[in-house]
């Protein structure tokens, strides 16, 4: 620890001992029993899907980071009846929106569905740590929202990320989102893929992409959500003539991939405060010589841990997963990329896909070669912690079946819906906590003090 006052140090020490005490028992399969009802999608007339009043009023408003450093945002929204205006008026006072930016508008067809007019607009050269108000729409049907820019990239800038995955649009999804909103800490959501689950409906009914956009607007219009693609974004449906993968996603959700030298919106990176975040694509080619692989190999050496100490990777399909669901699906990417994650000391990897919660110890399985047969995860302090947070609450329900016995590398697992918070304090410490939906937001169901892998390379937990 650095120069913290004694009180702060004592709190750190107490939290560490508490974690150690809990974790000394080794891998925990939680005995929390969740009320077993089926997750059901909210009906089309649910209040969270309501269309904002006024002719052609903007809806499905969302904001994401728009550059590599955090000085720009991409604002997106849909107007249902006509294109209207793609201009955004914005400023630091709600009553004086002194700046304006021009966006673009697009639409798409999917089988018999025709989308509304989808607008995207980049606001650039924003001031750091500043609240901006913005107005979209035209005439009498305008709507005003706000967002806050992050601090300047700095190794000790505190910043708090929310973690949500596989949200969908069920009654449980609504509880997860409300639970996250009531947790006052989250400043930006790292979303680990599988958004609307529209593809479960006949002909991938894209109306469910619209309802999802309206459902999450109450958060996405006010803080950036950083997007990762999951299998439910693929929307490949040759049986109805839809051959282009990711068509609805790429029209609706823009990301700043070009700012990190990526030619694809499915893998890219951003810096935000003291974090460097790499987003990878489980469902785009990632083998040797593929664009994603070449990009990642060039990307990792660029990460300057003196500038951004915290190196976080997002991907949809987990590399370590001890549930029966999607078992081993991440294995091919693990074989490809795990040596890089260990070499570059990634702090943590967040994934979704499995509709449950799991956290690993720091382990790696990179010693294997075809001759020695030495294929077993072992403790490795250069390795990431792997966290599965695919427990947003979508209609496929919980993944309650686990492989038995719990593998040694698995520190904690529980089949409950929830969200998590990754709270960066400075270059050496971050506090991580997972909240199950059944509890209040002051109650943590799992937690860990993270020690930065470059600035504070100490063991966080006792490996059983
Ligand atoms: Fe998935």
From TrEMBL:
Listed name of the protein: Purple acid phosphatase
CDD domains in the record: MPP_PAPs
The family this protein is said to belong to: Belongs to the metallophosphoesterase superfamily. Purple acid phosphatase family.
Pfam families tied to this protein: Metallophos, Metallophos_C, Pur_ac_phosph_N
Domain (Calcineurin-like phosphoesterase): residue spans on this chain: 160-357
Listed PANTHER family: ACID PHOSPHATASE RELATED, PURPLE ACID PHOSPHATASE 10
Gene3D superfamilies assigned to the protein according to its UniProt record, in alphabetical order: 3.60.21.10, Purple acid phosphatase-like, N-terminal
Keywords assigned by UniProt, alphabetized: Glycoprotein, Hydrolase, Iron, Metal-binding, Signal, Zinc
Signal peptide stretch: 1-26
Domain Purple acid phosphatase N-terminal: 58-149
Residues covered by the Purple acid phosphatase C-terminal domain: 383-442
One Gene Ontology term of the molecular function aspect: acid phosphatase activity
InterPro entries in UniProt: Calcineurin-like_PHP, Metallo-depent_PP-like, MPP_PAP, PAPs-like, PAPs_C, PAPs_N, Purple_acid_Pase-like_N
Segments forming a coiled coil: none
Known EC number: 3.1.3.2
Catalytic reaction equation(s): a phosphate monoester + H2O = an alcohol + phosphate
């Amino acid at each position: 620890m650095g120069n913290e006052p004694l009180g702060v140090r004592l709190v750190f020490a107490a939290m560490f001992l508490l974690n150690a005490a809990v974790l000394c028992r080794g891998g925990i399969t939680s005995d929390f029993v969740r009320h077993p009802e089926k997750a059901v999608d909210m009906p089309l007339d649910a209040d969270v899907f309501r269309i904002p009043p006024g002719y052609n009023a903007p809806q499905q408003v969302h904001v994401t980071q728009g550059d590599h450093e955090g000085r720009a945002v991409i604002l997106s929204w849909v107007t249902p009846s006509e294109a209207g205006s793609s201009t955004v008026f914005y400023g630091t006072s709600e009553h004086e929106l002194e700046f304006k930016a021009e966006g673009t508008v697009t639409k798409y067809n999917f089988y018999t569905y025709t989308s509304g007019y989808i607008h995207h607009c980049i606001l650039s050269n924003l001031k750091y740590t500043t609240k901006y108000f913005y107005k979209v729409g035209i005439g009498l049907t305008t709507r005003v929202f706000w967002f806050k820019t992050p601090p300047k990239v700095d190794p000790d800038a505190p910043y708090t990320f929310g973690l949500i995955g596989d949200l969908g649009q069920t009654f449980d999804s609504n509880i997860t989102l409300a639970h996250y909103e009531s947790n006052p800490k989250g400043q930006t959501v790292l979303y680990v893929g599988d958004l609307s689950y529209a593809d479960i409906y006949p002909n991938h009914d894209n109306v469910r992409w619209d309802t999802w956009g309206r459902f999450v607007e109450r958060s996405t219009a006010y803080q950036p959500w950083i997007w990762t693609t999951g299998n439910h974004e693929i929307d490949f449906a040759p049986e109805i003539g839809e051959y282009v993968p990711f068509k609805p996603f790429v029209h609706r959700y823009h990301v700043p991939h070009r700012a990190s030298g990526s030619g694809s919106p499915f893998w890219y990176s951003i810096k935000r405060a003291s974090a460097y975040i790499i987003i990878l694509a489980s469902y785009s080619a990632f083998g040797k010589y593929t664009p994603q692989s070449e990009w990642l190999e060039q990307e990792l050496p660029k990460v300057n841990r003196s500038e951004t100490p915290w190196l976080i990777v997002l991907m949809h399909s987990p590399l370590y997963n001890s549930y029966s669901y999607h078992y081993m699906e991440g294995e091919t990417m693990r074989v490809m990329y795990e040596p890089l994650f260990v070499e570059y000391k990634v702090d943590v990897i967040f994934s979704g896909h499995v509709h449950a919660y799991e956290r690993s110890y720091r382990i790696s399985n990179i010693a294997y070669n075809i001759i020695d047969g030495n294929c077993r995860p072992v403790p490795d302090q250069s390795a990431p912690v792997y966290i599965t947070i695919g427990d947003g609450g979508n209609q496929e329900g919980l993944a309650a079946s686990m492989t038995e016995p719990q593998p040694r590398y698995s520190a904690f697992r529980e089949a409950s819906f929830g969200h998590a918070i990754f709270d960066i304090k400075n270059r050496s410490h971050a506090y991580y906590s997972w909240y199950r939906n059944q509890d209040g937001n002051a109650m943590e169901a799992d937690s860990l003090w993270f020690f930065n892998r470059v600035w504070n390379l100490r063991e966080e937990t006792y490996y059983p």
